[in-house]
Amino acid sequence: MKVSARVVTEVRKQARWLAGKRPTRKIVYDHLPKCGGMSFIAILKRNYLYQHTFDTNRGNPLDRVARFQAMKEKQRHRFHLVVGHQAFQVLDLCDPACLKVTVLRDPVERLISHYFFARETPYHYLYETIQHQKLTLLDYAKIEVSNELNNWYTTHFSGMDHSQAMKHPAEAVSRAAEVLTGRFDRIGFLDQLDSFIQDLCHDCGLTSPEGGERANVTKSKPDHVDPREREVLRERNALDVELYEILRKRNGMSSQ
User: Fold this and answer.
1) What is the pTM of this model?
2) Alpha-carbon distance 57 to 31, whole Å?
3) Which domains are assigned to the chain?
4) Higher pLDDT, 112 or 11
5) In Å, what is the CA distance from 247 to each residue of 87, 127, 181?
6) Rg (CA), the chain
7) Which pLDDT value is given to residue 18?
8) What's the CA gap between 72 and 87, in Å, rounded?
9) pLDDT tens, 120-179?
10) pLDDT band at 20 (very low <50, low <70, confident <90, very high)
11) Does the structure show a pLDDT above 70 at 219?
12) Half-sphere exposure (CA, 13 Å, Cβ side) for 194?
């Protein structure tokens, strides 16, 4: 009888837990699209038992969030690891002892990666739109096919919709920055992901990953994008660019 790789992994994790080799902190991770999240989640899941993990990416994230919100407090607090898209919506419902974490990426690079990944991935929810309308990168950035493409960081964390954020840009950026620095314990940046993960593993008693393998990588992303196109993308996501630079400075890092 062939045993699946997942079962073998879970048995090994159970053995480590029984031997007292378990994480010292619970974690909730808000996964932002195309910010290295799948790689990060894979590393986290190697350390936490399946029955102690709640992943909003196992199905429709909003449906999964609603399911979590409907749980009783005792059931919600038994999860040691809560991860996935829209996990931000359940931050205050998780065990208060959870370390709250997210990872951001340069907004322009994120949008470029988002486009090429969606264009080449048939199961992506924007694949058909891109193929049917033959959207270019600039088309993708300009037309409103998804709220993930226009100042997503700012609207996601400020709680303001796109039209409100554009009417009150300074307030939107300020509110998003305060939410991120006030409600999250750790903010990572994709260009420093390896060191961020190593520090987290050290502080939370996690097993460090072997090698630097990445999951869900956009293989078709070109090495070079016309500077004029980049400038348009930057202008279209000016609030996110400003927010990103504010956060890097607060974390003692230079602008990219």
Assistant:
1) 0.90
2) 9
3) 24-250 (3.40.50.300)
4) 112
5) 20, 32, 8
6) 19
7) 82
8) 17
9) 999 999 999 999 999 999 999 888 888 899 999 999 999 999 999 999 999 999 999 999
10) confident
11) no
12) 6
pLDDT, tens digit, for every residue of 77-129?
999 999 999 999 999 999 999 999 999 999 999 999 999 999 999 999 999 99
Backbone phi and psi for residue 52, each to the nearest 5 degrees, phi listed first: -100, 10
Name residue 169's amino acid.
Answer: P
How is residue 214 written in tokens?
A: 């990445």
104 forms bridges with which residues in the sheet?
A: 189
Question: Following DSSP, what letter does each residue of the chain receive, concatenated?
Answer: -PPPHHHHHHHHHHHHHHTT---SS-EEEE--TTSSHHHHHHHHHTTS-GGGEEETTSS-HHHHHHHHHHS-HHHHHT-SEEEETTGGGGGGGS-TTPEEEEEE--HHHHHHHHHHHHHH-TTSTTHHHHHHHT--HHHHHHS-S-TTSSSHHHHHHH---HHHHHHSHHHHHHHHHHHHHHH-SEEEEGGGHHHHHHHHHHHHTPPPPSS---SS--TT--S---HHHHHHHHHHTHHHHHHHHHHHHHTT----
